[in-house]
Amino acid sequence: MPVFYPPVKPCPCGSGRSYASCCQPLHLGVKWSETPEQLMRSRYSAYFLQDTAYVLETCHPEKRPADLDLNDGIRYTGLTIHEAVRDEVEFSVTLKTPDGHTHRFRERSRFERLGGRWVYVDGNVSIR
Ligand SMILES: [Zn+2]
């Protein structure tokens, strides 16, 4: 089960909008993401809220991990979108591991539209 997050609070993805008017409708399945960037943001928020089902269902069926544990003590502390062009989004994520260390990685993700719905295909990660 995802963590409860008050809909009126700023969306975890950092858009500056409330959760209710940003990623929540996507998480609830009320709306589909219109762009790869929107999907990327909602997937980040899903990691933040430990919404495993959403992360899995927005993966390309052929690339979907068999299982995924988001209850791993990692806290997601920031998302920066660097570039969103056609079906690719480049972003950085900062996170804190249970031992208190802060990490930052940068990824260029690829997305594909399947049956009218954007899904995450894969990405190139650089850890720094
Ligand atoms: Zn959002």
TrEMBL record:
Where in the numbering of this chain does the YchJ-like middle NTF2-like domain appear?
Answer: 35-123
InterPro entries assigned to the protein according to its UniProt record, in alphabetical order: NTF2-like_dom_sf (IPR032710), SEC_C_motif (IPR004027), YchJ-like (IPR023006), YchJ-like_M (IPR048469)
Q: To which protein family does this belong?
A: Belongs to the UPF0225 family.
Q: What is this protein called?
A: UPF0225 protein ACFOPQ_10765
Native organism: Deinococcus antarcticus
